[in-house]
Amino acid sequence: MQKIEPVKRDEFGYGIHPAISMDNEHININSIPYFSGMRITATSFELDAPESLTEDYFDNDNYDISDWQPTPPANNAILIAVLDTEDGPYAWFATPEPQKFISATKTGRCANGSQLDHGTVRHALPAESYFWGCKSVALCGTKPGRRSVGFVSDKGKTTITCARCAAKLKKLGGEVVEADDA
Ligand SMILES: [Zn+2]
């Protein structure tokens, strides 16, 4: 995902990110691949702005909304557009979706059962590369051995006990979810 710069607002407080194109005065931000992997939300000027500003806009026909600081939906949300609509101005934000991980253990060799207890450390596996018994690489870099059954998750378990996985997960701001096949 590329780094997205916030939109530059003009002297009246409006603006649109250069990656967004207008079509018949409509924008469909969700259709723009540039923002894929991000959640797009809109904040209404009417509901969000202080009353002095909304009165000025709706009652006094003052279209200067440059004093409005739209409330972002999350701390890491990026302002990508401020536009006038039939329902008054709206501010659009793009918020990066947290990367999803599965908590899984490395099972030992099942041939004799003697090493099944190796699977007590819970690693973080990128959700998109996880399936039951996968031999993907965990965040810490570990992966199941040649004779291992592979990584397996457990229903309801979302804790990560591998210290290196946990540290990386925190740095990435990732989210641990239950596996579909747990
Ligand atoms: Zn790990």
Description:
- With 182 residues, the protein is of the alpha+beta class.
- It has three helices and eight strands, in the order ββααβββββαβ.
- The strands form two sheets. The protein has a four-stranded antiparallel sheet with strand order 1-3-4-2. Strands 5, 6, 7 and 8 form a four-stranded mixed sheet that branches.
- A hairpin with a 2-residue loop joins β3 (78-85) and β4 (88-96).
- It is elongated and about 75 Å long.
Which terms would index this structure?
182 residues; 3 helices; single chain; alpha+beta; 8 strands; binds zinc ion; 2 domains; four-stranded mixed beta sheet; four-stranded antiparallel beta sheet
What are the SSEs and their pairings?
Blueprint: E1 15-16, E2 38-44, H1 45-48, H2 51-58, E3 78-85, E4 88-96, E5 100-107, E6 122-126, E7 150-153, H3 163-172, E8 175-177
Biggest sheet: strand arrangement:
1-3-4-2
Number of strands: 8
Instruction: Evaluate the radius of gyration.
Output: 24 Å
C-alpha end-to-end distance: 29 Å
Which structural class should the secondary elements be placed in?
A: alpha+beta
Number of H/I helices: 3
Number of domains: 2
- The backbone outline, from C-alpha atoms, is elongated
Which ligands accompany this protein?
zinc ion
Average pLDDT, rounded to a whole number, is 87
pLDDT under 50 segments (min length 5)? Answer: none
